[in-house]
Amino acid sequence: MIVERVGEYRRRIHAELKRAFADEHTPREVAGSFAVGVFITMLPTLGTGLILFVVLVALFKSISKIALFASVLVFNPVVKWGVYAASFSLGTLLLGPVEGVTMTDVSLSAGPEIVVRLLVGNLILAVVATVLGYVVVYRLVVSYREQLEPLEEAIEEVVDRTLDPDAA
């Protein structure tokens, strides 16, 4: 029973990867999906981001599941602590320090002033990461697909010659 489940998971993952590398989604859709994932993942959603991913995938056919969920690999829970620290620092730089609180005293229990600085900084960093993520992934997808075209043509040519020796 377990072996069958593992086999089924392997088949599903393999099928999803093949679909992700196929031309099922345009470069804009792949990049947009990744960018949306980055934006959601960067925000302090406390785990509800994954639920939002599932809802988005169910509602929109144009979303690339692989690209959307890949953003979680980039901004995983370990990395998010650094993002939160940078967010708070940026928020403090823009809004000023919280009176009576040093950097070593910072915690969410210190009050709404801390939360506001965290959210302001986090929103700015999320927007910047979203734009950068879109541009980088768009260029990667376009470059990857351009490299595949000559390979696909060469494979078609070999197959044609193999099936029809008179065509050569």
UniProtKB/TrEMBL annotation:
Signal peptide coordinates: none
Ranges where the DUF2062 domain occurs: 11-146
Keywords: Membrane, Transmembrane, Transmembrane helix
Residue ranges crossing the lipid bilayer per the database entry: 34-59, 66-94, 114-137
Family annotation (Pfam families): DUF2062
Keyword Transmembrane helix in record: yes
Protein name as annotated: DUF2062 domain-containing protein
Organism of this sequence: Halalkaliarchaeum desulfuricum
Lineage, highest ranks first: Archaea, Methanobacteriati, Methanobacteriota, Stenosarchaea group, Halobacteria
